[in-house]
Amino acid sequence: MYFEEYEGRKLESLVVDCKPPRGFVAKVVLVEEPMKEYPDEMSRTMTLYMAPKETIDTYVDGYMYEGQDVKEKEIGVDTAKYLLHVDGRYEEIHTGADGYWGNHLEFSRGQGKSRILDAITVSVCMPEFEDFESMKRLTGYIFLDAQLLAEPDSQTEQIKME
């Protein structure tokens, strides 16, 4: 694993490590939808949104604010697995393949010479052999305080953590 082989900047380039500022809340959105190129196959993603309570829904709805910059880091896998680790709970996700399996976005804006972090999102794709129910179980385990917000109208669910 990377943690045993690398350190410093090299390790930092290979992993996503989020430490949201105080005052951020989180929402997890699970999505299952048919793939455009292969309608018989399903795409499943888990996205963690972190932002102040007053603005988090802007990011969940897929928007951002004028004047914000976005810094993206792709989540690459070259060991056919990745590790989700949150507050001491972790799960190793076996992907079955190498490649890019997600991304990490930071939304920020300038204020004088400094930057203000407005939001963070982390999205990961789930392997094809994981179904929607297993994503829900994983979410309940990784995000211990997650609560289902509403009955879904399709296979999309938002889960709130407080």
Structure description:
The two termini are 32 Å apart. This protein is an alpha+beta fold and 162 residues long. 17% of the residues lie in helices and 48% in strands. A hairpin with a 2-residue loop joins strand 4 and strand 5 (89-94). The chain has one domain.
Outline, from the CA principal axes?
Answer: globular
Q: How does the helix and strand content classify structurally? A: alpha+beta
Question: What string gives the helices and strands in order?
Answer: HHEEHEEEEEHEE
How many individual β-strands?
A: 9
The residue ranges in which pLDDT falls below 50 over 5 or more consecutive positions are 151-156
Integer average pLDDT: 84
Q: How are the strands ordered across the major sheet? A: 3-6-7-2-1-9-8
Report the portion of residues in β strands: over 45%
Write down the Rg: 16 Å
Number of helices, counting only DSSP H or I runs of 4 residues or more: 4
Number of domains: 1
Q: Which helices and strands appear, and what pairs or packs with what?
A:
Blueprint: H1 2-5, H2 8-14, E1 24-34, E2 42-52, H3 56-60, E3 69-77, E4 81-86, E5 89-94, E6 99-111, E7 114-125, H4 132-142, E8 146-148, E9 156-161
Antiparallel strand pairs: 1-2, 1-9, 2-7, 3-6, 4-5, 6-7, 8-9
